[in-house]
Task: structure prediction
Amino acid sequence: MLDQRVLQSFSNAGQEVLGRRFPGFRPRSGGTEFTIQPRSIRKLSLESGDLLAISGNGTVAVAAFDAGGQPRPSHLGLQGLVAIDAESFHAQPLLGWVAANGGADDEAIQAVPLESRGEPVILKARDSVTAWLIRPAKREDLVCGTAQGVISATLQPAGGRTMLPDPLGKVREEFTVLRGSARAYEIKRGEFVQIIDLEGQQCSDFQAIRMRGLDRDEELVIDSTATRSMVRRAYPGPGLFDKFYDASLAPLLQVIQDSCGRHDTFGMACTARGYEERGFPGHVNCSDNMSLAFAPFGVAPRVAWPAVNFFWNTWIDPRHQIQTEESHSRAGDFVVMKALDDLVCTSTACPDDIDPINGWNPTDIHVRIYESDSAIQRAVAYRPKEDGPMSMSQTSAFHLRLEPLTNAFAPARDLWSPVSFPAHGTLGEYWACRTAVTVQDMSGLRKFDVIGP
Result:
């Protein structure tokens, strides 16, 4: 990552945020920013007093609903509902949400159109409301490049309320790990666990143990050395090399989504000895917290726990020294993993307040466990530049036909694209272009290429 050209310098010099200087991180008072592309929609959950600012050049339609799926534009101080053509945007998520929450099961979408011309439009929630921001556009305008530009929206919660990302599926259980503590929990094979950094720049040590191993008094945990050897990188991520392994090289978890992309598997969870050597004897630490959390499951305590250190920003410099700095994770960043066996896991909210790894201010971590039938697609975060709004990568229109042909997909900007087709190989692909006809998925450029002799 350090040898890549960036659009804007990413170092501890620049914007001041609560006494720290770190560009790329919006101050909490700035709210959360989103973008709405032509023919796309965005779902936002607002509570009473929340502010929504819409800016840009173009038309955006706001569809507001209460918890029962009934239109409530008055909750945002709006009036003048009009029918929006469902063919002018990607309407299925909205229609599915309305039907699932008891609203009218039809394709008549009622919304209030707003014109944004330079000056932002400010809306204040008068009650709890779910708002869908819609950017209608004709298909031919999108293809020809004549559609109106991107609309930006900023959501500012009232009273400094912490915002959680929307659930990705059916939540079986969720809880908050308070700063300086740890919590153990069970996940079954096929279920998903989501680790969420609530306020940004907070590390969370994670470890998983195979339940059937505990039945035989064996502690089969995530082995970072085995994992790095198998995935051939510092840590796995969504895509082809996406699994954490135990010492027997058997996979434990599959990484499905990662919105931060910067973690650590080299260091242990922080220990009592580590704080003592730096002059802080008796400091609360993650290793002791993990031992206490695991104790009800019959796991032996350890002085130092190996762990996956989510959101910990480390790297190896040219002199082979392990360096660390403030985390790259923003408020609401998360990692989603799928359990490949029955596991008992623990997550911590690291208490380290004597160096920059938690931004000098330890905060909380939130954990969600999703049922196994949740349809959670693999994704990584995409930002046009370091301090730009985040969007999660999507699959292209070709994906359903490409997925049976290869597992080798990689994110190309904000879309997953195939890297290779193992059944054919590089030479087979070359001769297909020479003697037959091939189709190249270039959805990131809103096109596809047909290549042949």
Remarks:
- The chain has three domains: 32-156, 171-382, 394-451.
- Helices lie at 92-100, 139-144, 211-214, 224-231, 272-277, 286-294, 399-402, 425-435.
